Amino acid sequence: MTDAAQVSSAPAITTRDLTYRWPGADLVITYPDITLARGQHLFLQGPSGSGKSTLLSMLCGLASAQAGKLVVMGEDLRALSAGKRDQFRADYLGVIFQQFNLVPYLNTTANVTLPCRLSRRRRQRVTGSPEQEASSLLKALGLEPGDWQRPVTALSVGQQQRVAAARALIGGPSVVLADEPTSALDTDNRDRFLELLLGQAKAQGTSVILVSHDPGLANHFDASISLGAPS
Questions:
Q1: Are strands 175-179 and 207-212 parallel, antiparallel or unpaired?
Q2: From CA 162, how far away is CA 43, in angstroms rounded?
Q3: Rounded to whole angstroms, what are the CA distances from 220 to 92, 114, 191, 231?
Q4: What pLDDT score was predicted for residue 5?
Q5: Model pTM score
Q6: CATH at residue 64
Q7: Cα 30 vs. chain centroid, distance in angstroms?
């Protein structure tokens, strides 16, 4: 893998001529080129079927591009084995899934600290203990202390969303990738959540890429890219 000096000096994300084809399908999606500076926040908008979630999956190493260049924090993801992509994701990326993907048998704090158990790098970057940083993030994201030890299954959708964001941010990942994280929220709660998420990311110097079909989110971001409908 790329050495630490190269990772630290690289843009957060660079893609060129990136394409993807779903298995068994003839349609090939061609993506616009992306250069995302460290600490910058990018909004990706597009209709259903435009490949927004697929692009996030490629950026975090869960899906493989058919062709093109895909470099995250100086690392050529297309050159890594599946196992090395998994470790790279654990070390450098925070992911907020559309359905949150919280672990149902863990409480709120244990869900947030999970990345620190999967990555030594994330553990070493926390301030104090992982539990202390989890508390700080949950407080900053508006979750009451009484909820920090509750089962995540007992939380509302809005509360689970904040837990997912705290889990993605703990340990100062270089990039946070968020897939339609506000789809279940009304406009006021949507905007408040984005302000909290992007504010915490800015404080950590973390880049954010968020995808959504909602064009009203664009004004929260440094830059935006629109993906067209598949042809």
A1: parallel
A2: 19
A3: 23, 28, 8, 29
A4: 45
A5: 0.90
A6: 3.40.50.300
A7: 21
